[in-house]
Design brief:
62% helix, binds FE2/S2 (inorganic) cluster, two-stranded antiparallel ribbon, mainly alpha, single chain, 117 residues
């Protein structure tokens, strides 16, 4: 899925950049600017910033759950990212995504499937 149409960045590009960023000692907070820089791209209109923050947050959760990146590093970065996003449109996108994940877990459990930890 395209996240940034100006720089042509997909969610998979963001995931790849996060793996590289979070795999370094003293990893910086993966803000959209840091992630785009890792991809050797720059924001132009910044219209994608809220979607980029939501994508970064969700990708870190996925990377932690699958064990690709240290879950503690992801949790720490997610907490710092939430603080930065507080009161912004990005925060509302993250909250919606978290609510949707919660409802899909609840429906999977109701169907007798094991919910992910
Ligand atoms: S849509 Fe990402 S910088 Fe314009």
């Amino acid at each position: 899925m395209i996240i940034c149409s100006c720089a042509v960045i997909t969610d998979l590009d963001i995931e790849r950049a996060l793996i590289e960023i979070l795999d370094t000692p003293d990893a910086p907070l993966p803000t959209p600017g840091v992630v785009y820089k890792q991809l050797q791209k720059k924001m132009v209109c910044c219209g994608c910033s809220a979607l980029a923050v939501e994508t970064i947050y969700n990708k870190m959760e996925k990377l932690a759950e699958t064990g690709v990146v240290c879950p503690y590093a992801c949790a720490c970065a997610q907490g710092r990212l939430l603080k930065c996003a507080d009161g912004t449109h990005a925060m509302r996108l993250i909250e919606n995504a978290m609510a949707n994940r919660g409802s899909s877990r609840r429906s999977a459990t109701a169907n007798g499937e094991l919910a992910p930890a």
